[in-house]
Fold these 3 entries.
Entry 1:
Amino acid sequence: MTRLIIFDLDGTLLDTREDIANACNYALKMCGCPERRLEEYNMLVGRGIYNLFRGAMPEDRRSEEMVMKMKSHFVPYYNEHIDDCTRPYPGIIGMLDALAAKGIRFAVASNKYQEGTEALVRKYFGKYDFVRILGQRDGKPIKPDPAIVHEAMSGIEGIKAEEVVYCGDSDVDMQTGINAGVRTVGVAWGFRTREELSAYDPWLLVEKAEEITDALMRD
């Protein structure tokens, strides 16, 4: 029986691509770098903002100094425009309502920086009682390291790995669940492809949020 479902955020619960792209393109422009097309961000997001910056800037400009300069422009801009275009994916609210009514608890484990993760979860999902809201924090390993899943699990005393599901939209998420020893759910509505997810043989691979509800209601 599932007691806890841990969600990735970007590309899983929320369609954040356009706001992330706009903020990163602003930072690129401020750093004198060419902007990226919206479609390119499907592959750039998901590994934390530092890797986002490294991937977005031209190879010959990459340095830790440039990464920090990008961050100095990106974070204030994104904080100001964090929800201009961002919305929950279809069916997400209904799924959360149904699972909460069944007594399943929720957590978020994201590679988005902590401040942004907390702001978006509170704005769009504030009515739910998340046991942990975890993002990227300096000094903490990022996914696919399983530490963030174990930290989320610590919000429920005595929980076992077999009572946990990890849900995400990318290869990083599938690897994270596998590394943590929990069941994985791949969502095909996010930033990556169904083929990328299926390569990791997830416990469940879904096209609609209702499929998660149906599976966990029978669990």
Note: Strands lie at 4-7, 14-15, 87-88, 105-113, 130-136, 164-168, 183-187, 204-206.
Entry 2:
Amino acid sequence: MKFTVQEIANSIGAEFFGDPQIKISSVAEPKLASELDIALAINPKYLDDLKDTSAKCALLTKGSDWTAYDLSAAILVSRPRYAMSTISTMLDKGQNYKPGIHPSSIIDPSAQIGNNVLIGEMVVISSNAQIGDNSIIGPQCYIGSNSILGTNCYLREGVKIGSETIIGDRFCAQPSAIVGADGFSFVTEKSSAVEEVRADLSKSTVNKNENQIWHRIHSLAGVIIGNDVEVGANTCIDRGTLRPTSIGNGVKADNLAQIGHNVQIGNNTLICAQVGIAGSAVIGNNVVLGGAVRYKR
């Protein structure tokens, strides 16, 4: 897929100079850019590389002198990384999944599949599941019974959605993400040393025989996820015990994050890689949790 310089500039509301009809099919660093790439030189350290680039067009920070380089066109923006969010969306070739529903997939007769839905190889869609229009379900995905997936959702390879999960529009999940695993909740018949220490952290030792069996407390509620949520590869969101785990609109979770049972997360929160959020924790709106942060209630 190719776009002209003018089409790209218009899509981000940016100024452009030079030949508006140059065709662009991808983005690259100046040294690696070909004639079909737009050279990304938004960081000053890459400007010198434009002297040796094969690209005809570059994306530059507003105020840069594009005529100082052997370019045929340039797009100038005041916030380059924000511009990249639109440009990268336009130029993303995706995973080249074949359109339609692959014959190896298993779809329960009671499932409701929307219009223009792509379903890849070896997908399983369970009873009474609903898939919204224009969604892409990649190879080897699983969607549990009574779960709802909104419109324009995108599940990469091997994503697993448990039963009783409600997900809004434009949800994106990277490979092997899991939504709706059982929570990690166990109890002993009698009060344990672990409970005593948790009740009073000042205790350095406890005198109690720990030869007890752990009994599972089952997760009976599902997960509710808002619109425009993204979940990274191998991230897991546990289902709730008695009330659903809740993820607000616009939440973005990186790879290898763990979101425990009953957790409530507000809108537009950013969860970086390897974050662990303990069960029943409550997180507000517009929070940023850095890499490997541990958060408990």
Note: The chain has two domains: 3-91, 106-189+214-295.
Entry 3:
Amino acid sequence: MTEKPTKNSLLESDPAMDEDTMEGKFLTFHLGKEDYGIEIRFVTEIIGVQKITEVPDMPDFLKGVINLRGKVIPVMDVRTRFKLSERPYDDRTCIIVVNLNETAVGLVVDEVSEVVTIEKEQIEPPPKTSRGKSSRFFKGMGKIGDEVKILLDVERLLYDEELQNLGQMAEA
């Protein structure tokens, strides 16, 4: 059995790593029973859950803000965003800090798995919904052996208006 990676070891890389070497690399994580992935180029760091300060008048999936080394980071619960049932945070729950249009945002997930490479040929378009469109959050379905990872489009997890609100929240 392979050893589970630690939060810090997942992102350790050569400082000379540029975007070309990150192509096809995804940070995978669990939400409920499913495995998801986001492009590693958006990921800044992975941290454990810490005290989240609630901010009034925000959508329910925006849980509030955290203070990360003196910088205020808005936090979104991905479970709530996808309308999955809530579950209490535990010692496996992580916050994946991503950079969205020059704004740092924390994404709360059940558990971080590993960094995997998924070649373009192994990514299929997301399934269509009953309305004939695929969910705007999904970039595709990544095949790794006999497993399928739901690949998220990080840039579409938030609408422009919500992203603008987050930017203002972080500046406040």
Note: The radius of gyration is 16 Å.
